[in-house]
Amino acid sequence: MDTADLLRIALALPGVEQRSRDRGYLALEVAGRAFAQVPDGGDTVALKATRQEQAALVAADPTVYAASHVSGRFGWLVVRLRHADAGEVRELVTEAWRHTAPRRLVERHDQRA
């Protein structure tokens, strides 16, 4: 799993846009709100997750997952891509998108799945 794989997964979700940020990272957004942040030249991604998901994943495998900041009911989860399972990353990216996307996009996505 690498950044190119991650971008293919994320950009396949409805309404996702990729934006470069001045602070040295790429933001993946839906409806103008970020759900993933990819540092320039890095092999990690920070994904929006619930605080409970963040804590459980970090506790289960700290070689792959690390906690980043928290904001409200969400905790951002750092994933070390080269150590991560591709299926798990796909699931985490989709969940991060679900936490952020407007309900109509989520419903449309679920109807196609």
Order of helices and strands: HEEEEHEEHH
Whole-number count of domains: 1
Report the CATH topology name: Aspartate Aminotransferase, domain 1
Mean pLDDT across every amino acid position: 94
CATH class: Alpha Beta
The N- to C-terminal Cα distance equals 23 Å
Structural class: alpha+beta
How are the elements arranged and paired?
Layout: H1 3-11, E1 16-21, E2 25-30, E3 33-39, E4 44-50, H2 51-60, E5 65-71, E6 74-80, H3 86-100, H4 103-112
Antiparallel strand pairs: 1-2, 2-3, 3-4, 4-6, 5-6
Helix pairs in contact: 1-3
Could you characterize the architecture of this molecule?
The structure is a single chain. Strands 1-2-3-4-6-5 form a six-stranded antiparallel beta sheet, with helices on one face. The model has no long low-confidence stretch (mean pLDDT 94). Helix 1 crosses helix 3 (86-100). It is an alpha+beta fold and 113 residues long. It has helices at residues 3-11, 51-60, 86-100, 103-112, and strands at 16-21, 25-30, 33-39, 44-50, 65-71, 74-80. It has one domain (3-104): Aspartate Aminotransferase, domain 1 (Alpha-Beta Complex), CATH 3.90.1150.30. It is globular, with a radius of gyration of 13 Å.
Name some characteristics of this structure.
39% helix; 113 residues; alpha+beta; six-stranded antiparallel sheet
